[in-house]
Amino acid sequence: MGLAILILLALIFLFVLTVLAKTIRIVPQARAGIVERFGKYRTTLNPGLNVVVPFIDKVRYVIDMREQVVSFPPQPVITEDNLVVSIDTVIYFQVTDPVAATYEIANYIQAIEQLTMTTLRNIVGGMDLEETLTSRDEINTRLRGVLDEATGKWGVRVNRVELKGIDPPPSIKDSMEKQMRADRDKRALILTAEGQRQSAILTAEGQKQSAILTAEGDRESQILRAQADRESQILRAQGEGQAIQTVFQAIHDGRPDQSLLAYQYLQMMPRIAEGDANKVWIVPSEIGKALEGLGSTMNNLQGIPTETDGPAKRVDMGPTEPSVPAEPGRSAAGDAVQEAIREAQRAANPRRPAGGAAEGAGEDPPA
């Protein structure tokens, strides 16, 4: 009897525990519970402690109200230029109405995936490959607009759509790499050509400036050299002019006559006789007549008077007949020439005494 009572009490305790478990339901934060009574929607449980009628009400679904991320596998899509590309997408969505998400569609995630693929094929089908690769933002915006409009009645809001990857076929990738490489080579060649052109221009400008400076330097050098030559010639001409003027003035101050010119002519004859090669020198006997003819010829020269009037400025020449020492290089022919010169002078001026002939004509300088 006592054992039966214990078993009954145990069964009652288990029933109470089961009723309590069916009555009290705890819903986590950011979730919503869908309660059905006899298979029909009754209410939505909020996060926290909730009480339901046991064995009558049933929590059918617990919906996650947080934003969720779903990545769909790559799908083949044909572009406008008939190229097949593989595109995988990422969808960011959030359940806003748990009742609609439960009863309006059986599996909203699968529905979003299929809608994303069909919409993506429709958008990319109107673009070529290059436009598809460079228009991600446009594709994302258009895809999000279509999905948000379609999933609104499902109680789902699509917050963002991203194209995670667009992979063209391997042959197209190889062609794109070649095109990119050719484009980069083209730009490199253009930059190299521009650099060479700038270098050539700068080099030509430098050579031009160098040539200009060199020409200017040569011109200035030639100008300075010409000025120096001109001044040198002017100074040389002035010096020669002053020397000629001094000699001419000295000659006019001395007032020379024909005897002096004949003497200067005869003075060169001993120098002709000098030298080691002149071993023998014969003085002709007609030298007096020759000198007379020379004197008569010079009488007709203009500017040289035959006789001068008035006193002439004379230079003290020392003794009338100085003794000339014998020089090592003088020969016997030279002495004979000197003696012939004296006889010719005495014959040319017979009116003057023999001792005064040397004074009028000057004396023979020592050889």
CATH architecture of the largest domain: 2-Layer Sandwich
The run of helices and strands is HEEEEEEEEHHHHEHHHHHH
Distance between the termini: 191 Å
How many structural domains does the protein architecture include? 4
CATH fold descriptor of the largest domain = Tetrahydropterin Synthase, Chain A
The helix-and-strand class reads alpha+beta
Largest sheet: 4 strands, antiparallel
Q: What's the Cα radius of gyration?
A: 71 Å
- What value does the average pLDDT take? 77
CATH homologous superfamily label of the largest domain: Band 7 domain
Strand content: 15-25%
- Number-wise, the strands total 9
Oligomer: single chain
* Number of helices, counting only DSSP H or I runs of 4 residues or more: 11
Low-confidence segments, given as residue ranges, are 310-331, 353-367
The coarse overall form would be: rod-shaped
CATH class category of the largest domain: Alpha Beta
